[in-house]
Amino acid sequence: MAQYTVTAFRWSGTGYNSQYNTSYTATIDDNDSAFQGGGDSDETISINGGAFGASSSAPYAIDVSFTDTNGNSHVENFNFFNTGGNWYFAPEPGSAFTTGATLGSYQSHTVGWNYSDITCFVRGTLIETDKGLVPVEKLHSGNKVLTMDGSYSSIQMVLNRSLNSQTLVKNPKLNPVRIVAGALGNGLPKRDLLVSRQHRMLVVSKVATRMFNQSEVLLAAIRLTDLPGIFVETGAENVEYFHLLFDNHKVIYAEGAPTESLYTGAEALKTIPQKAREEIALLFPQLFENDHKEPTACFIPNGKQQQRLVARHLKNNKPVLDGSTSFPM
Fold first, then answer.
1. Buried b (16+ CB within 10 A) or exposed e, 32-58
2. pTM
């Protein structure tokens, strides 16, 4: 049985327009990678280190508007689950929802959600290093990888996870996103690139500049699937994902396209298996300090902003990598 730990908030039960000033640590013990609620007798949940109890009801992934502690508005997905007679919701990795934020109103929902929100490359992906192009599975700690500023940074850790066809069929959100050669624009990627759904790709465009007053932003691959040549790959026999961890969040190059390394924000770390977290804690103890906030390599818009950015590119028939953009390749 595997255990998954998330930060959660106990739903007020009186509607969505409530402020949440208390968070809980939820540890879920399960024998698969999907939360299934009352229909899965193997699922048990501990709240704040208490006794493990059964899950109940159906799980929901609900899009809800909210206001963060700085007064900014967002719409994000929250994973709802029920145990001990209470509903809880867990923000996804990198969420702007923290203690003190206020939920707004219900937007939409789907039933069911997965524990993993992995950010990684598929086996065979070519990464630009100081030794040239190297398949991601051949990389190891100490290898130097090209970053967006033209310098080379040393890999601190390489993590991997293999998923078989049964797991992919049962949990379709674990299927990779395929970005066909040239689909991002500017001739990139140079070959088809497969990444996990939440793996972020760099967008460099005038559209981004108009929207965010900065030309370089990171968008989740799944958000790009409205664009031609980018889609969820299904029917694979198995998939092996790789994480590349550096001393901080980087923009690196996969199949020539600018993309992110593993982001080690507090919520993202909770999606990493326990043994990997323990190893990361030895290398980067500061990441686990309460007041630490890992900066991102580039601005990351919220979910609705990402949707609008992609929609504008699609409407204007503009690539997300501007043709005038040059990269240090």
1. bbbbbbeebeebbbbbeeeeeeebbee
2. 0.63
